Amino acid sequence: MEKPNYNTDIVRSFINWGIIWGLVAILVGVIVSLQMVEPALNFPPYLTFGRLRPLHTNAGIYGWAVGTTFALFLYMVQRLCKTRLWSDKLARFQLWFFNATIITAAITLLLGYTTSKEYHELEWPVDIMVVILWVAFAINIIMTIIKRREEQMYISLWYMMASIVGVAILYIVDGAEVPVSLFKSYSAYAGTNDANVHWWFGHNAVAMVLTAPPLAMFYYVLPKSTGVPIYSHRMSIIAFWSLIFMYLWTGAHHLLWTPVPDWIQTLAMAFSVMLIAPSWGSVFNGYLSMRGQWHQMRENYLVKFLIIGITFYGLQTLQGPMQAIRSFSAFIHYTDWVPAHIHMGTMGWVSMIAFASIYYLVPRVYGRELYSVPLANLHFWLILIGQLIWTISLWIAGVLQAGMWTATNSDGSLAYSFMETMVEMYPYWWARVFGGIIFLIGVLVFIYNLVMTTRRGEISPASERAAVEGRA
């Protein structure tokens, strides 16, 4: 049987650019955390917290997470389908247009052009660029799947297709707007409809960008790196369809105690709690796959990232439904508990899986052994410790904030002023800075290890031959 000749060059390029934008996101994140404790570090008009914060989130989600998703999807789809990409030229166009879109997004956000919709701040010309980019990506992946040589559809392909279709629908519907100038538009929706549509997008963007792609990576890299199959393919399929169905109804839990109709809020609460089951279906599938293999947590650096990553996913999907309950939401909403939750997901779950996936890919697409396993282990501990420091400190800060905001005197007046609450936050915000710097150092170790792998890592004849022949 003729061996497929896979396209690994495009995978290398997306790995490189995804890492670059991830580094930008983390650097900006450290800067904005410093601005919270040292206001003098705001330099108007372009380098203020209000301009840098959306740059941080967009670079993290669309640069780092999506860039890594592009690299892994283009790698996995060829191997799971046992065929070369449908169009190398379209993939190359996707790479350059991806970078053009990210750069344009960064410039416009720093200039203050924004829709003010969280996770969808980009104005209409950049929205059009995002749509073109995603269509090019979707066509290439879907056409490759259609012409596949492998009959069975492995679970990773299901998550890949869900992400592709889901993002397309979500982004276009939420992005419906009326342009009034080159870089200004107004939403096509109004009032509670606008809020409801936006958070339908917002939470399902988490599903289709920050949940489905990492699960696709997890289900591919875990068996590849451990040498043992996934515990249950049937469980993975049931969890997939349950997850996709339930996620669609959860967006309004961001709008509890608002003018959005109560029945919509209650529906969102119910489905948010039910979402625990399919999420933990994947967690248990990962854990059960490690039966008799837990020693690899010590011996295999990739397994550390993967298992701790899926553990953070499980914790996220317990904490999230808890926040979706009205009584608890009334207590912690608008506090620092919420960014702690978000960062545990993006840096504990998504990034852990992305780091493992890139570590898995780089030796295979460059034909070299990893330069240093001890450095990879150091990277793991630095990002784990850094992430825990800022997450736990912000959890505590959030509970303290909520308690002070709701404390009242015997006459019903507020016991604390807003400024008194702010003063109490400073130690926790400094802890966030410290944790962020540790995480940043870990990422720099990661980048150094990869650069040295491509330049000085020992040549692996088996990996090099497999890359050429399409068996890596």
From TrEMBL:
Keyword entries, A-Z: Electron transport, Heme, Iron, Membrane, Metal-binding, Respiratory chain, Transmembrane, Transmembrane helix, Transport
- Can you tell me where the transmembrane regions are? 14-37, 57-75, 96-116, 128-146, 153-173, 199-222, 234-257, 263-289, 301-320, 340-362, 382-408, 428-451
Superkingdom, natural source: Bacteria
Q: How does it sit in the membrane?
A: Multi-pass membrane protein
Any GO CC annotation of this UniProt entry: membrane
Q: Where in the cell is it found?
A: Membrane
Q: Which GO terms describe its molecular function?
A: cytochrome-c oxidase activity; heme binding
Q: Among its keywords, does the record have Disulfide bond?
A: no
Which Pfam families does the record associate with it?
COX1
Which parts of the sequence belong to the Cytochrome oxidase subunit I profile domain? 14-472
Task: Name a biological process GO annotation.
Answer: oxidative phosphorylation
The keyword Zinc belongs to this UniProt entry's keyword annotation: no
Q: What family does the Swiss-Prot or TrEMBL record give for this protein?
A: Belongs to the heme-copper respiratory oxidase family.
What is the name of the protein in this document? Cytochrome C oxidase Cbb3
> What taxonomic ancestry is recorded?
Bacteria, Pseudomonadati, Thermodesulfobacteriota, Desulfuromonadia, Desulfuromonadales
